[in-house]
Write the structure tokens for this entry.
Amino acid sequence: MAFRTLDGVAVAGQRVLLRADLNVPVHDGHISDLTRIERLMPTIRELVGKGAKVILCSHFGRPKGKPVAEMSLAPVARALGTVLGSAVGFASDCIGPVAAEAVARMAPGEVLVLENTRFHAEEEMNDPGFAAGLAALADLYVNDAFSAAHRAHASTEGVAHLLPAYAGRMMQAELEALESALGHPTRPVAAVVGGAKVSTKLDLLGNLVGRVDLLVIGGAMANTFLGALGSAVGRSLQEPDLHATAREILDRAAAAGCEVLLPEDVVVASALRPGVESRTVPVGAVPEGEMILDVGPATVAALIARLRGLRTLVWNGPLGAFETPPFDKGTMALAQAVAAATVAGALRSVAGGGDTVAALRQAGVLEQISYVSTAGGAFLEWMEGKTLPGVAALSASPAAAG
């Protein structure tokens, strides 16, 4: 995985176009979660400290190629200034005279946020002219938005071919963490994959069976595998039309020497609601009128026992309906065990996906995992073995090849 980092790069007085992910939750002008802004700070502070003129560009929402007042990055620029602890400028466009004049006024060490790149339809088209307009504002390009790296847009891919291109510190950390988890992991390596539907993770499962030693399948998607093996799953969410596909995945795993671990007992109830009466039954003994909503204690014990022999773990998706007690027990117990093994230095743990991050936060162990990706779609596509345009562009950039 060849890409250049900011190590040793002279940026004093240089105009640096920093592709960030400022697509943060905003309600009535108030940002409810500053995580993405806070994660940009190492790169921004390093560039500012080295005397660069830091020009941030980002998309925000889906304005469909035209200005939408509610999707302006102006409130985000103000929040960025608060987190950074210094003034941050804002340009009401991301290309053209308005942007160029704002950049021309910058002094070394200053920070400027450009308006939403998606206010121009050419952004998502990866239009060469639009990419050139962005490139004209800067002397070099830094991509610190791994979460947008799966999109071949002008600000994530096109501009990287026009300027010397580098990975920002957050992008670098993400790529190094993922490489350590699946690229060249310390073995034995396992993957925990959960979620609702097998259909949304076929590519992921297909890639993992050839890369990991142990594949743990949980969540509602495990029901499809159980059903494919002939187990009764009652009214549980499953995809009967994918039973044959599930069996094919199991066959591929066996051929690759990958062990697949499915639930051996499950927690069932007649409805998914807080405090509903529930009980634990063996797999295959699910009553016709009930549904599987979590893995059972024997399954959890088996999983935790297997952790002791692992060196690397990748986690994407919960084991059950963790948002609704009492169906959070399996996911919470595994989260605690993974965190404990990580803190003890016995396990390298990498987790990603919105539900997974929420579950780890709910368990109070988010900070104890080796690396937690907030990248969503990009994280999933990387786990699927797909080439991410924004990452490939850093490697392929003529200016960054030397």
